[in-house]
């Protein structure tokens, strides 16, 4: 077995689309549209007492997904069991607020271009959860757009706060300037 390091080079188009800062303009409309959609969804829930107050709207959504006739909305038994558990635990009272503030946080991050890859990942996870619960709607397309932004995490927020945040914070494998040891000047 060889111990030589093997590197698989990215195609030029992938480098341009997903890591070249000049292509930040390409991702700007995608990011803003997705951020707007999350803001619209979160704000709608924030001003609705059935969402922000009692969580009754979320409970109704879960119960609609659990109906079997004529065809079950939730296809996978393990996910159905998860939703049934949430219903029986009366999790809608607090989980609705997690959804609302999660949607608004994702919207804010995408619109401002702050940690776009992370925000898009969590947005995609929410889209996928809605799809699993039986609500296709626009979630499939929004999931695809979120996936593209996750792939373009290095440049999707370049026209936004990520231009300064990413160099300052860095990544888990390479800390940014804010996490590097301070260099002290020698006093002579």
Describe the protein.
The chain is an all-alpha fold and 188 residues long. It has one domain (23-158). Helices cover 62% and strands 2% of the residues. The protein is built from nine helices and two strands. It has helices spanning 12-19, 24-46, 49-52, 56-66, 77-88, 92-112, 116-132, 139-151, 162-169; strands spanning 170-171, 174-175. It has a two-stranded antiparallel sheet with strand order 1-2. A hairpin with a 2-residue loop joins strand 1 (170-171) and strand 2. It is globular. The mean pLDDT is 92.
Strand content: under 5%
- The sequence of SSEs as H and E is HHHHHHHHHEE
The chain-level mean pLDDT equals 92
Helices, by number, come to 9
First and last CA, distance: 55 Å
Globally, the shape reads globular
Low-confidence stretches: none
Number of E-type strands: 2
Give me the side-by-side strand order of the main sheet: 1-2
Rg measurement, Å: 21 Å
- Number of discrete domains: 1
The oligomeric state of the chains shown is single chain
Helix content: 55-70%
Characteristics of this structure?
mainly alpha, two-stranded antiparallel ribbon, 9 helices, 2 strands, globular
Tell me briefly what this model is.
This protein has helices at 12-19, 24-46, 49-52, 56-66, 77-88, 92-112, 116-132, 139-151, 162-169; strands spanning 170-171, 174-175. It is mainly α and 188 residues long.
